[in-house]
Design brief:
Elements (H helix, E strand, L loop, with lengths): L7 H5 L3 H22 L4 H16 L8 H10 L13 H8 L13 H11 L3 E5 L6 H9 L6 E5 L3 H12 L7 E3 L12 E5 L1 H5 L9 E5 L13 H12 L5 E5 L4 E3 L8 E5 L6 E6 L7 H9 L6 E4 L3 H13 L7 H13 L5 H6 L3 E4 L5 H12 L5 E4 L1 H4 L8 E4 L3 E2 L2 E2 L2 H8 L10 E6 L10 E3 L10 H4 L9 H14 L3 H7 L4 H12 L3 H6 L8 H14 L12
Parallel strand pairs: 1-6, 1-8, 2-4, 2-5, 3-4, 5-6, 7-17, 9-16, 10-12, 10-13, 11-12, 13-16
Antiparallel strand pairs: 14-15
Helix pairs in contact: 2-3, 2-4, 3-4, 6-7, 21-23
């Protein structure tokens, strides 16, 4: 988007007189756009966000502009950004109208309140909103409602599970129980919040009834995305949607939903492009694979804190080593102390130790969870400000990045599509912290495309037996009933066991049974252990898993 105040960096260093002239012209243009389009004037909102950033950085030069900027902020619905100390009385009153009932410290923007009100009316809501929208504030406010006693939140990754649990812990009162680990048993009554990945919630038998089911990043239920976990996600959606009074599905950059065959008629689909941050795009394709060029951009304090997207754990390691060789040194006491701790408790040969000693962290799905969580918290708290990450951090986890560098263009050997690209790009900037982010492209952006999402678990289930097994018998087509009976025979599992473990795919469960049948009695005994396995028991279990599942994409090379 190119207009009066883009790119922002040019205006931050402009002479005062020139800045004031252009800021006034931009305000006039924004006001005209608002008069023409109202609250949906995207260009006007983008200008207002940039004016807020300028007013924060050039306080003295734009001091007398503040009442005008506050008025424009109200007009585009950005009520969280309205500063009561300089806003007019009418703007302050308007802001109060958007304050959350359950959290007096929270003020919604106009589109957050639109979704929140639909949920309060009892609607089933499917929402498409940009990455910087502030969806977690809606989730937290709904959980805080008195009529919501038992709720469940399905999240796609363990990293997001950790973040969601910590965030909600800060919001709830002592009478609320958060269930997130397999070892916990939920009380039969009282206020309870279940948080888990699809596999963890599918495995639970103590959920009972629900007042609200929340599915974060719900687009992953679409079979066309070729996500190997879509079966488990649809299975748990199918199961939990049948025991909840209301559901809320939310994800980014979705143009429509394919609701044919859904069991629910009262679904409010809300699509909004409402952003609370802006971003400037910087094309550096000429510097493709040039680590020295990346290092130069990262060394510039105006580009930090920075998130660098890479395609795989190996790519994260290689790039971290390359940046260290390029001479970057932005270390802090915190990053050096963490590096020393890792060296002492893991190994001094880990490249993460060397990179953290230069102020560079990385995060991927193969790291120990506690360490990965500590690195994200350290980045968000400003203890260091360069973080390399794979898609495990892109999918829903909030970060405090000002800039995003898209270094790789693939995930698991496949080119990043426009949907994923938009999700990565949307991590630049952070509501309330960085008004305007930056996105650096090291590869051409994918061609824009429309994205309509299917969720078989809310409808007929298609022909996926792992989803259909959760349906009432009268809903299952006769041919599918026979297939499910055959799966019982071939796996040796009951219907309840098929429901519980169906996310692993019935064919894999069948293969597991065949492999176990080929083992000797001594080998079978090694598979029979409780709590913590001994070495030979663990080795036998890993060998079985390796044979039954295709784990080459996870980076494993053998059962051993």
């Amino acid at each position: 988007m190119t207009h009066y105040l883009s790119p922002l960096d040019e205006w931050l260093g402009a002479p005062a007189a020139h800045l004031r002239e252009k800021a006034f012209e931009a305000s006039q243009f924004a006001a005209a756009e608002i008069a023409d389009q109202g609250i949906k004037a995207d260009t006007a909102r983008d200008i207002v966000i940039r004016l807020l950033a300028l007013a924060e950085q050039r306080t003295d030069d734009l001091a007398d502009f503040r009442p005008m900027i506050e008025a424009l902020t109200r007009e585009v619905g950005l009520f969280p950004y309205v500063d009561a100390s300089v806003a007019s009385l009418s703007d302050q009153i308007a802001r109060e109208a958007f304050r959350s009932e359950s959290d007096p410290d929270l003020v919604f923007h106009v589109e957050q309140q639109r979704i929140f009100k639909s949920l309060l009316l009892g609607n089933n809501v499917v929402a498409s909103a940009p990455t910087s929208f502030g969806k977690s504030l809606i989730i937290d406010s709904m959980i805080g409602q008195l009529h919501i006693e038992r709720s469940a939140i399905i999240v796609p990754t363990l990293a997001l599970l950790d973040e969601t649990r910590r965030r909600i812990l800060q919001k709830i009162d002592v009478t609320t129980t958060i269930i997130f680990h397999r070892s916990q048993i939920a009380p039969p009554s009282g206020k309870v919040v279940f948080i888990g990945t699809q596999e963890r919630l599918l495995d639970r038998t103590d959920i009972g009834r629900l007042d609200l089911l929340i599915v974060d990043e719900f687009y992953k239920a679409d079979p066309s995305r070729s996500d190997g976990r879509f079966v488990a996600l649809n299975a748990v959606i199918s199961r939990l949607s049948r025991i909840t009074r209301q559901f809320f599905l939310i994800g980014p950059f979705i143009d429509g939903i394919d609701a044919r065959g859904w069991r629910y008629a009262d679904v409010d689909f809300i699509k909004t492009n409402y952003r609370t941050v802006s971003f400037d795009s910087i094309d550096v394709q000429a510097s493709q694979d040039n680590i020295a060029s990346l290092a130069t951009y990262l060394a510039d304090g105006q580009n930090r804190p920075a998130l660098v997207f890479v395609k795989s754990p190996q790519s994260a390691t290689e790039l971290a080593e390359g940046l260290v060789e390029a001479g970057i040194d932005l270390s802090t006491d915190w990053s050096r102390q963490l590096a020393d701790w890792i060296s002492e408790n893991y190994t001094s040969n880990w490249s993460l130790v060397q990179s953290l000693r230069r102020g560079i962290g990385y995060h991927h799905g193969r790291m120990p969870r506690a360490l990965a969580s500590a690195i994200v918290r350290g980045f968000n708290r400003g203890h260091f400000n360069i973080l390399l990450c794979t898609s495990t951090l892109i999918e829903g986890v909030n970060t405090a990045a000002k800039s995003v560098f898209i270094w790789d263009k693939k995930i698991d050997g496949t080119d990043v599509d426009f949907f994923t690209f938009s999700n990565i790009r949307g991590r630049a900037g952070r509501m309330g912290r960085h008004y305007v982010g930056k996105v650096f492209y090291f590869h051409p952006a994918p061609q824009e495309e429309q994205h309509e999402v299917q969720v078989p678990g809310l409808g007929s289930g298609g022909d996926v037996d792992e989803i259909l097994v959760h349906y009432d018998s009268a809903e299952i087509p006769h041919a599918a009933q026979q297939r499910i009976t055959n799966w019982q025979t071939s796996t040796g599992l009951t219907i309840e066991e098929l429901k519980r473990f169906g996310g692993l795919h019935f064919s894999r469960l069948e293969r597991l049974k065949e492999l176990i049948g080929e083992l000797s009695s001594d080998e079978v005994r090694r598979l029979s252990w409780r709590q913590f396995p001994k070495y030979n028991e663990l080795k036998a279990t890993a060998a079985l898993v390796w044979k039954a599942f295709n784990l080459t994409r996870s980076g494993a090379r053998s059962g051993t």
